[in-house]
User: Fold this.
Amino acid sequence: MSDTAAGVDELVDKAELVTQKSAAINEWIMHHVSDSPAWHPLPFLEVPLPGWMSNHVLMLLIGAGLLVLVFKVLCRYQPGRAPRGWTNLVEVLVKFVRDDICVATLGEEDGRKMAPLFLTFFFFIATLNLMGLVPLFSTATGNIGVTAALAIVTFCFMVFGAIYMNGPIAFAKGFVPSGIPWPILIIIVPLEVLGVAIKCVALTIRLFANMFAGHIVVFSLLGLMVTFGAAALPAVVMALAIDLLEIFIALLQAYIFTLLSAMFIGQMYHPAH
Amino acid sequence: MADNAHSKPPAPHELQGHVEQPHGVASPIDVSPQMVLWTWIVFGLLVVVLYKIAWKPILAALDQREKDIQDTIDNAEQVRAELAGIGQLRSETIAEADEKSRSILDAARQGAQEQARVIETKAREDAQIIQENASRDIETARGKAEATLKRESGDWAVELAGKILGENLDNAKNRNLTDRLVEEL
Assistant:
Protein backbone atom coordinates (compact mmCIF):
# COMPACT_ATOMS: atom_id res chain seq x y z
CA MET A 1 0.00 0.00 0.00
CA SER A 2 2.78 2.40 0.90
CA ASP A 3 4.50 1.31 -2.32
CA THR A 4 1.47 2.42 -4.27
CA ALA A 5 1.39 5.69 -2.35
CA ALA A 6 5.04 6.30 -3.18
CA GLY A 7 4.32 5.52 -6.85
CA VAL A 8 1.45 7.96 -6.92
CA ASP A 9 3.59 10.61 -5.27
CA GLU A 10 6.26 10.09 -7.90
CA LEU A 11 3.69 10.37 -10.66
CA VAL A 12 2.30 13.55 -9.15
CA ASP A 13 5.83 14.94 -8.95
CA LYS A 14 6.42 14.16 -12.57
CA ALA A 15 3.12 15.69 -13.59
CA GLU A 16 3.95 18.74 -11.52
CA LEU A 17 7.30 19.05 -13.23
CA VAL A 18 5.70 18.88 -16.66
CA THR A 19 3.17 21.50 -15.61
CA GLN A 20 5.91 23.77 -14.39
CA LYS A 21 7.90 23.32 -17.57
CA SER A 22 4.81 23.97 -19.62
CA ALA A 23 4.13 27.11 -17.64
CA ALA A 24 7.72 28.23 -18.19
CA ILE A 25 7.47 27.50 -21.91
CA ASN A 26 4.13 29.30 -22.09
CA GLU A 27 5.65 32.32 -20.45
CA TRP A 28 8.67 32.17 -22.74
CA ILE A 29 6.49 31.91 -25.84
CA MET A 30 4.29 34.81 -24.79
CA HIS A 31 7.36 36.81 -24.03
CA HIS A 32 8.80 35.94 -27.42
CA VAL A 33 5.77 36.89 -29.51
CA SER A 34 4.90 40.00 -27.49
CA ASP A 35 6.42 43.41 -27.83
CA SER A 36 9.26 44.17 -25.46
CA PRO A 37 11.34 47.22 -24.62
CA ALA A 38 14.54 45.51 -25.78
CA TRP A 39 15.77 43.81 -28.92
CA HIS A 40 16.93 40.19 -28.62
CA PRO A 41 18.80 39.53 -31.85
CA LEU A 42 20.44 36.37 -30.51
CA PRO A 43 19.90 34.16 -27.44
CA PHE A 44 21.51 35.71 -24.36
CA LEU A 45 22.04 38.97 -26.24
CA GLU A 46 19.79 41.84 -25.27
CA VAL A 47 20.01 45.27 -26.86
CA PRO A 48 18.20 47.81 -24.65
CA LEU A 49 16.15 50.34 -26.58
CA PRO A 50 15.29 53.94 -25.67
CA GLY A 51 11.97 54.46 -23.93
CA TRP A 52 10.15 55.83 -26.97
CA MET A 53 10.98 52.71 -28.90
CA SER A 54 10.11 49.07 -28.52
CA ASN A 55 11.17 45.86 -30.23
CA HIS A 56 8.30 45.97 -32.73
CA VAL A 57 8.87 49.64 -33.49
CA LEU A 58 12.48 48.79 -34.24
CA MET A 59 11.24 46.00 -36.54
CA LEU A 60 8.99 48.49 -38.36
CA LEU A 61 11.96 50.77 -38.87
CA ILE A 62 14.26 47.96 -39.97
CA GLY A 63 11.59 46.62 -42.35
CA ALA A 64 11.08 50.05 -43.88
CA GLY A 65 14.85 50.50 -44.11
CA LEU A 66 15.26 47.14 -45.82
CA LEU A 67 12.60 48.04 -48.38
CA VAL A 68 14.19 51.38 -49.12
CA LEU A 69 17.58 49.73 -49.41
CA VAL A 70 16.29 46.98 -51.69
CA PHE A 71 14.52 49.36 -54.02
CA LYS A 72 17.22 51.99 -53.94
CA VAL A 73 20.22 49.71 -54.42
CA LEU A 74 19.00 46.57 -56.15
CA CYS A 75 16.40 47.92 -58.56
CA ARG A 76 18.16 49.60 -61.42
CA TYR A 77 17.10 50.77 -64.81
CA GLN A 78 19.83 51.34 -67.33
CA PRO A 79 18.68 53.12 -70.45
CA GLY A 80 18.69 50.91 -73.50
CA ARG A 81 19.14 47.68 -71.52
CA ALA A 82 16.59 45.13 -70.41
CA PRO A 83 16.15 44.98 -66.61
CA ARG A 84 17.78 42.00 -64.92
CA GLY A 85 17.68 39.86 -61.81
CA TRP A 86 16.16 41.51 -58.79
CA THR A 87 14.48 44.21 -60.82
CA ASN A 88 12.60 41.55 -62.78
CA LEU A 89 11.44 39.84 -59.60
CA VAL A 90 10.18 43.10 -58.15
CA GLU A 91 8.54 44.00 -61.45
CA VAL A 92 6.59 40.76 -61.45
CA LEU A 93 5.23 41.51 -57.96
CA VAL A 94 4.57 45.16 -58.76
CA LYS A 95 2.72 44.26 -61.93
CA PHE A 96 0.75 41.60 -60.06
CA VAL A 97 -0.35 44.05 -57.37
CA ARG A 98 -1.17 46.75 -59.88
CA ASP A 99 -3.07 44.60 -62.40
CA ASP A 100 -4.55 41.77 -60.35
CA ILE A 101 -5.29 43.66 -57.15
CA CYS A 102 -5.67 47.38 -57.86
CA VAL A 103 -7.04 47.48 -61.39
CA ALA A 104 -9.12 44.34 -60.85
CA THR A 105 -10.95 45.76 -57.82
CA LEU A 106 -10.84 49.53 -58.33
CA GLY A 107 -11.03 49.81 -62.10
CA GLU A 108 -8.46 51.04 -64.58
CA GLU A 109 -8.27 54.67 -63.51
CA ASP A 110 -8.56 54.46 -59.71
CA GLY A 111 -6.54 51.26 -59.66
CA ARG A 112 -3.57 52.84 -61.35
CA LYS A 113 -3.88 55.97 -59.25
CA MET A 114 -3.98 54.07 -55.95
CA ALA A 115 -1.44 51.40 -56.89
CA PRO A 116 1.37 53.02 -54.82
CA LEU A 117 -0.70 52.68 -51.62
CA PHE A 118 -1.43 49.00 -52.17
CA LEU A 119 2.10 48.31 -53.34
CA THR A 120 3.34 49.77 -50.07
CA PHE A 121 0.77 47.71 -48.14
CA PHE A 122 1.86 44.54 -49.86
CA PHE A 123 5.60 44.99 -49.69
CA PHE A 124 5.62 46.42 -46.17
CA ILE A 125 3.43 43.66 -44.73
CA ALA A 126 5.27 40.94 -46.65
CA THR A 127 8.60 42.26 -45.40
CA LEU A 128 7.43 42.45 -41.78
CA ASN A 129 5.91 38.97 -42.01
CA LEU A 130 9.05 37.46 -43.51
CA MET A 131 11.30 39.22 -41.00
CA GLY A 132 9.54 37.22 -38.31
CA LEU A 133 11.01 34.07 -39.82
CA VAL A 134 14.56 35.40 -39.71
CA PRO A 135 16.31 34.65 -36.41
CA LEU A 136 17.57 38.19 -35.81
CA PHE A 137 14.16 39.80 -35.98
CA SER A 138 10.68 39.43 -34.60
CA THR A 139 7.26 39.83 -36.18
CA ALA A 140 5.87 43.34 -36.02
CA THR A 141 2.68 42.17 -37.76
CA GLY A 142 2.18 39.83 -34.81
CA ASN A 143 1.41 42.99 -32.85
CA ILE A 144 -2.25 43.91 -33.06
CA GLY A 145 -1.39 47.60 -32.81
CA VAL A 146 0.48 47.42 -36.12
CA THR A 147 -2.25 45.55 -37.96
CA ALA A 148 -4.89 47.85 -36.46
CA ALA A 149 -2.98 50.89 -37.66
CA LEU A 150 -2.77 49.48 -41.16
CA ALA A 151 -6.46 48.54 -41.17
CA ILE A 152 -7.35 52.06 -39.99
CA VAL A 153 -5.56 53.38 -43.08
CA THR A 154 -7.89 51.19 -45.15
CA PHE A 155 -10.84 52.41 -43.07
CA CYS A 156 -9.94 56.05 -43.75
CA PHE A 157 -9.89 55.41 -47.48
CA MET A 158 -13.19 53.51 -47.22
CA VAL A 159 -14.85 56.42 -45.47
CA PHE A 160 -13.06 59.66 -46.34
CA GLY A 161 -11.85 58.47 -49.72
CA ALA A 162 -15.37 57.45 -50.69
CA ILE A 163 -16.83 60.76 -49.45
CA TYR A 164 -14.19 62.58 -51.46
CA MET A 165 -14.89 60.50 -54.55
CA ASN A 166 -18.69 60.36 -54.49
CA GLY A 167 -19.76 63.20 -52.22
CA PRO A 168 -21.38 62.77 -48.81
CA ILE A 169 -24.89 62.11 -50.16
CA ALA A 170 -23.89 59.32 -52.51
CA PHE A 171 -21.69 57.96 -49.73
CA ALA A 172 -24.67 57.81 -47.36
CA LYS A 173 -26.87 56.28 -50.06
CA GLY A 174 -24.34 53.50 -50.40
CA PHE A 175 -25.58 52.14 -47.06
CA VAL A 176 -29.17 51.88 -48.26
CA PRO A 177 -29.64 48.96 -50.63
CA SER A 178 -32.27 49.71 -53.25
CA GLY A 179 -35.42 47.65 -53.70
CA ILE A 180 -35.82 46.65 -50.06
CA PRO A 181 -38.97 47.53 -48.05
CA TRP A 182 -38.36 50.16 -45.35
CA PRO A 183 -39.02 47.99 -42.26
CA ILE A 184 -36.14 45.78 -43.27
CA LEU A 185 -33.98 48.82 -43.94
CA ILE A 186 -34.20 49.63 -40.22
CA ILE A 187 -32.16 46.52 -39.64
CA ILE A 188 -30.06 46.57 -42.79
CA VAL A 189 -28.75 50.12 -42.65
CA PRO A 190 -27.12 49.90 -39.20
CA LEU A 191 -25.63 46.59 -40.25
CA GLU A 192 -24.20 48.14 -43.39
CA VAL A 193 -22.73 51.02 -41.38
CA LEU A 194 -21.30 48.64 -38.80
CA GLY A 195 -20.01 46.47 -41.66
CA VAL A 196 -17.46 49.09 -42.63
CA ALA A 197 -15.88 48.94 -39.18
CA ILE A 198 -16.30 45.18 -38.91
CA LYS A 199 -14.46 44.66 -42.17
CA CYS A 200 -11.52 46.63 -40.83
CA VAL A 201 -11.55 44.79 -37.50
CA ALA A 202 -11.53 41.55 -39.47
CA LEU A 203 -8.55 42.79 -41.46
CA THR A 204 -6.76 43.66 -38.23
CA ILE A 205 -7.40 40.34 -36.55
CA ARG A 206 -6.83 38.17 -39.62
CA LEU A 207 -3.29 39.41 -40.18
CA PHE A 208 -2.43 39.64 -36.49
CA ALA A 209 -3.77 36.20 -35.61
CA ASN A 210 -2.11 34.50 -38.54
CA MET A 211 1.28 35.89 -37.69
CA PHE A 212 0.86 35.50 -33.95
CA ALA A 213 -0.50 31.97 -34.10
CA GLY A 214 2.05 30.76 -36.61
CA HIS A 215 4.86 31.64 -34.28
CA ILE A 216 3.11 30.12 -31.29
CA VAL A 217 2.75 26.84 -33.20
CA VAL A 218 6.43 26.78 -34.09
CA PHE A 219 7.51 27.65 -30.55
CA SER A 220 5.10 25.15 -29.00
CA LEU A 221 6.47 22.35 -31.12
CA LEU A 222 9.99 23.30 -30.14
CA GLY A 223 8.79 23.59 -26.53
CA LEU A 224 7.88 19.92 -26.60
CA MET A 225 11.61 19.27 -26.74
CA VAL A 226 12.05 21.12 -23.47
CA THR A 227 9.23 19.21 -21.80
CA PHE A 228 9.80 15.71 -23.13
CA GLY A 229 13.43 15.76 -24.20
CA ALA A 230 14.68 13.62 -27.06
CA ALA A 231 11.35 11.77 -27.28
CA ALA A 232 9.94 14.88 -28.92
CA LEU A 233 12.55 14.98 -31.67
CA PRO A 234 9.96 14.44 -34.46
CA ALA A 235 8.40 17.70 -33.34
CA VAL A 236 11.45 19.50 -34.68
CA VAL A 237 10.73 18.15 -38.15
CA MET A 238 7.16 19.34 -37.78
CA ALA A 239 8.37 22.72 -36.60
CA LEU A 240 10.53 22.94 -39.70
CA ALA A 241 7.55 22.04 -41.87
CA ILE A 242 5.41 24.67 -40.16
CA ASP A 243 8.21 27.17 -40.61
CA LEU A 244 8.27 26.50 -44.35
CA LEU A 245 4.51 26.85 -44.40
CA GLU A 246 4.96 30.16 -42.59
CA ILE A 247 6.98 31.50 -45.52
CA PHE A 248 3.99 30.85 -47.74
CA ILE A 249 1.58 32.27 -45.17
CA ALA A 250 3.69 35.39 -44.78
CA LEU A 251 3.27 36.19 -48.48
CA LEU A 252 -0.32 34.95 -48.58
CA GLN A 253 -1.42 37.16 -45.69
CA ALA A 254 0.28 40.18 -47.22
CA TYR A 255 -1.63 39.41 -50.42
CA ILE A 256 -4.92 38.88 -48.61
CA PHE A 257 -4.62 42.08 -46.60
CA THR A 258 -3.82 44.05 -49.74
CA LEU A 259 -6.53 42.39 -51.82
CA LEU A 260 -9.25 42.79 -49.19
CA SER A 261 -8.26 46.40 -48.56
CA ALA A 262 -8.52 47.09 -52.27
CA MET A 263 -11.84 45.24 -52.48
CA PHE A 264 -13.35 47.08 -49.51
CA ILE A 265 -12.19 50.44 -50.82
CA GLY A 266 -13.41 49.52 -54.31
CA GLN A 267 -16.85 48.63 -52.91
CA MET A 268 -17.07 52.01 -51.20
CA TYR A 269 -15.82 53.87 -54.28
CA HIS A 270 -18.29 52.14 -56.56
CA PRO A 271 -21.31 51.40 -54.33
CA ALA A 272 -23.36 50.06 -57.27
CA HIS A 273 -22.07 46.56 -56.54
CA MET B 1 10.97 20.30 -5.58
CA ALA B 2 8.52 17.89 -3.93
CA ASP B 3 7.72 20.55 -1.33
CA ASN B 4 6.99 22.98 -4.04
CA ALA B 5 4.79 20.44 -5.76
CA HIS B 6 2.81 19.66 -2.64
CA SER B 7 2.24 23.26 -1.77
CA LYS B 8 0.54 23.90 -5.07
CA PRO B 9 -2.95 22.41 -4.80
CA PRO B 10 -4.69 25.75 -5.38
CA ALA B 11 -4.18 25.15 -9.07
CA PRO B 12 -7.17 27.11 -10.44
CA HIS B 13 -5.78 30.33 -9.04
CA GLU B 14 -2.37 29.59 -10.47
CA LEU B 15 -3.86 28.70 -13.85
CA GLN B 16 -5.91 31.86 -13.90
CA GLY B 17 -2.80 33.84 -13.14
CA HIS B 18 -1.04 32.34 -16.16
CA VAL B 19 -3.84 32.99 -18.58
CA GLU B 20 -4.62 36.53 -17.59
CA GLN B 21 -1.28 37.90 -16.63
CA PRO B 22 1.65 36.11 -18.14
CA HIS B 23 4.16 37.63 -15.76
CA GLY B 24 4.14 41.28 -16.66
CA VAL B 25 3.80 40.76 -20.40
CA ALA B 26 0.93 42.80 -21.82
CA SER B 27 -1.99 40.88 -23.29
CA PRO B 28 -1.40 40.30 -27.00
CA ILE B 29 -4.77 41.73 -27.99
CA ASP B 30 -4.23 45.09 -26.34
CA VAL B 31 -3.89 47.75 -29.00
CA SER B 32 -1.12 50.07 -27.90
CA PRO B 33 -1.70 53.64 -29.16
CA GLN B 34 2.03 54.16 -29.30
CA MET B 35 2.36 51.22 -31.67
CA VAL B 36 -0.47 52.52 -33.87
CA LEU B 37 1.14 55.93 -34.04
CA TRP B 38 4.51 54.49 -34.90
CA THR B 39 3.01 52.31 -37.61
CA TRP B 40 1.27 55.30 -39.17
CA ILE B 41 4.46 57.34 -39.12
CA VAL B 42 6.60 54.58 -40.62
CA PHE B 43 3.93 53.56 -43.12
CA GLY B 44 3.26 57.13 -44.18
CA LEU B 45 6.94 57.86 -44.70
CA LEU B 46 7.36 54.58 -46.51
CA VAL B 47 4.52 55.37 -48.92
CA VAL B 48 6.15 58.70 -49.77
CA VAL B 49 9.72 57.41 -50.00
CA LEU B 50 8.88 54.26 -51.92
CA TYR B 51 6.66 56.25 -54.27
CA LYS B 52 9.66 58.42 -55.06
CA ILE B 53 12.34 55.74 -55.34
CA ALA B 54 10.36 52.67 -56.40
CA TRP B 55 6.74 52.83 -57.50
CA LYS B 56 7.05 55.82 -59.77
CA PRO B 57 10.07 54.57 -61.76
CA ILE B 58 8.93 50.95 -61.80
CA LEU B 59 5.36 51.73 -62.85
CA ALA B 60 6.66 54.20 -65.40
CA ALA B 61 9.06 51.56 -66.73
CA LEU B 62 6.23 49.01 -66.95
CA ASP B 63 3.96 51.46 -68.76
CA GLN B 64 6.78 52.48 -71.06
CA ARG B 65 7.55 48.86 -71.86
CA GLU B 66 3.90 48.08 -72.55
CA LYS B 67 3.78 51.07 -74.86
CA ASP B 68 7.04 50.06 -76.55
CA ILE B 69 5.78 46.54 -77.16
CA GLN B 70 2.51 47.87 -78.57
CA ASP B 71 4.42 50.31 -80.76
CA THR B 72 6.71 47.56 -81.98
CA ILE B 73 3.73 45.40 -82.87
CA ASP B 74 2.06 48.28 -84.68
CA ASN B 75 5.30 49.10 -86.41
CA ALA B 76 5.79 45.50 -87.50
CA GLU B 77 2.30 45.54 -88.98
CA GLN B 78 3.10 48.71 -90.84
CA VAL B 79 6.43 47.36 -92.08
CA ARG B 80 4.69 44.21 -93.26
CA ALA B 81 2.15 46.26 -95.19
CA GLU B 82 4.95 48.34 -96.66
CA LEU B 83 6.87 45.24 -97.64
CA ALA B 84 3.79 43.81 -99.31
CA GLY B 85 3.45 47.09 -101.23
CA ILE B 86 7.10 46.97 -102.19
CA GLY B 87 6.74 43.37 -103.34
CA GLN B 88 3.81 44.29 -105.51
CA LEU B 89 5.66 47.27 -106.89
CA ARG B 90 8.63 45.07 -107.66
CA SER B 91 6.62 42.48 -109.54
CA GLU B 92 4.86 45.28 -111.38
CA THR B 93 8.20 46.82 -112.33
CA ILE B 94 9.54 43.47 -113.46
CA ALA B 95 6.42 42.84 -115.57
CA GLU B 96 6.75 46.32 -117.06
CA ALA B 97 10.44 45.80 -117.87
CA ASP B 98 9.59 42.44 -119.37
CA GLU B 99 6.95 44.01 -121.55
CA LYS B 100 9.30 46.78 -122.60
CA SER B 101 12.14 44.43 -123.47
CA ARG B 102 9.78 42.29 -125.46
CA SER B 103 8.53 45.26 -127.41
CA ILE B 104 12.09 46.42 -128.02
CA LEU B 105 13.00 42.98 -129.26
CA ASP B 106 9.94 42.84 -131.47
CA ALA B 107 10.71 46.23 -132.92
CA ALA B 108 14.32 45.23 -133.55
CA ARG B 109 13.25 42.02 -135.22
CA GLN B 110 10.73 43.84 -137.36
CA GLY B 111 13.35 46.44 -138.29
CA ALA B 112 15.83 43.75 -139.21
CA GLN B 113 13.28 41.92 -141.34
CA GLU B 114 12.34 45.15 -143.09
CA GLN B 115 15.95 45.96 -143.73
CA ALA B 116 16.59 42.46 -145.01
CA ARG B 117 13.65 42.77 -147.32
CA VAL B 118 14.87 46.15 -148.58
CA ILE B 119 18.36 44.80 -149.13
CA GLU B 120 17.00 41.78 -150.93
CA THR B 121 14.77 43.87 -153.17
CA LYS B 122 17.57 46.23 -153.97
CA ALA B 123 19.92 43.35 -154.71
CA ARG B 124 17.32 41.81 -156.94
CA GLU B 125 16.82 45.13 -158.76
CA ASP B 126 20.56 45.61 -159.12
CA ALA B 127 20.91 42.11 -160.47
CA GLN B 128 18.12 42.76 -162.93
CA ILE B 129 19.71 46.02 -164.07
CA ILE B 130 23.03 44.28 -164.49
CA GLN B 131 21.34 41.49 -166.42
CA GLU B 132 19.49 43.94 -168.59
CA ASN B 133 22.66 45.90 -169.25
CA ALA B 134 24.44 42.71 -170.12
CA SER B 135 21.63 41.68 -172.48
CA ARG B 136 21.67 45.08 -174.09
CA ASP B 137 25.43 45.00 -174.44
CA ILE B 138 25.21 41.54 -175.99
CA GLU B 139 22.44 42.74 -178.27
CA THR B 140 24.48 45.78 -179.30
CA ALA B 141 27.61 43.74 -179.81
CA ARG B 142 25.64 41.24 -181.89
CA GLY B 143 24.14 44.04 -183.98
CA LYS B 144 27.56 45.51 -184.49
CA ALA B 145 28.99 42.13 -185.30
CA GLU B 146 26.12 41.44 -187.70
CA ALA B 147 26.58 44.77 -189.39
CA THR B 148 30.30 44.27 -189.59
CA LEU B 149 29.81 40.78 -190.90
CA LYS B 150 27.25 42.05 -193.42
CA ARG B 151 29.61 44.73 -194.66
CA GLU B 152 32.65 42.54 -194.63
CA SER B 153 30.88 39.73 -196.33
CA GLY B 154 29.48 42.19 -198.92
CA ASP B 155 32.95 43.58 -199.49
CA TRP B 156 34.30 40.12 -199.71
CA ALA B 157 31.59 39.16 -202.18
CA VAL B 158 32.24 42.29 -204.32
CA GLU B 159 35.92 41.67 -204.16
CA LEU B 160 35.27 38.09 -204.95
CA ALA B 161 32.88 38.94 -207.76
CA GLY B 162 35.22 41.66 -209.10
CA LYS B 163 37.96 39.19 -209.12
CA ILE B 164 35.69 36.78 -210.90
CA LEU B 165 34.37 39.36 -213.25
CA GLY B 166 37.77 40.97 -213.53
CA GLU B 167 36.34 44.28 -213.46
CA ASN B 168 35.55 46.70 -210.67
CA LEU B 169 32.04 47.81 -210.67
CA ASP B 170 30.94 51.30 -209.84
CA ASN B 171 30.88 51.63 -206.10
CA ALA B 172 27.29 52.87 -205.91
CA LYS B 173 26.00 50.36 -208.35
CA ASN B 174 28.06 47.84 -206.62
CA ARG B 175 26.53 48.59 -203.29
CA ASN B 176 22.99 48.45 -204.57
CA LEU B 177 23.75 45.16 -206.18
CA THR B 178 25.31 43.83 -203.05
CA ASP B 179 22.37 44.96 -200.90
CA ARG B 180 19.99 43.29 -203.24
CA LEU B 181 22.04 40.14 -203.19
CA VAL B 182 22.19 40.12 -199.46
CA GLU B 183 18.42 40.70 -199.27
CA GLU B 184 17.93 37.82 -201.56
CA LEU B 185 20.30 35.74 -199.57
The interface with chain A takes residues 1-2, 4-5, 8, 18, 22-23, 25-26, 28-40, 42-43, 45-47, 49-51, 53-59, 61-62 of chain B (CB under 8 Å). The first helix of chain B runs from residue 2 to 6. DSSP finds four helices and no strands in chain B. The CA atoms of residues 117 and 123 of chain B lie 10 Å apart.
